[in-house]
Design brief:
Jelly Rolls; 4-stranded antiparallel β-sheet
């Protein structure tokens, strides 16, 4: 999905998938969905189609964009697990989707060590500020 994909009337779907034989964990994060040049003032609904914890296919609308009132939506790195399909369920677009893809290698021991280091860090307690006394 880097640098992104575009959904239009002629290309309504985009599927992000990884090789099934890949022994890594993949995280796909959706950052921004926005209308681009040539968009009409109509509702453009973008859905994400993926699988739930029971491996059943589910479809969830994540954005409803309209040029005159909400041409852009920040999804704050909405995390998904591939395979995932983005579909323009309504409207003609063009709608641009941007995000990032992270690969976590399961056999990478340094990744586990980093996690442990973070949990062992001590955080200093918050101490209230001292009040200054004024002489009258």
């Amino acid at each position: 999905l880097l640098p992104g994909c575009e959904l239009t009337a002629s290309t309504k779907c985009y599927t992000f998938q990884v090789d099934e034989d890949d022994d890594s964990d993949h995280i796909l994060a959706l950052s921004v969905v926005c209308l681009t040049d040539g968009a009409k003032d109509e509702c453009n609904v973008v859905e994400v189609i993926g699988r739930n914890h029971k491996n059943q296919e589910i479809s969830v609308p994540v954005a409803n964009l309209k040029l005159s009132c909400q041409p852009l939506l920040s999804l704050n790195n909405f995390k998904l697990q591939p395979p995932v399909t983005f579909r323009l369920a309504a409207g003609s677009g063009p709608v641009h989707l941007a995000g990032w893809h992270q690969i976590l290698h399961r056999d990478d021991a340094s990744f586990e060590e980093d996690d442990n280091d973070m949990s062992e860090e001590e955080i200093a307690p918050i101490v209230p500020a001292k009040k200054e006394r004024r002489k009258q």
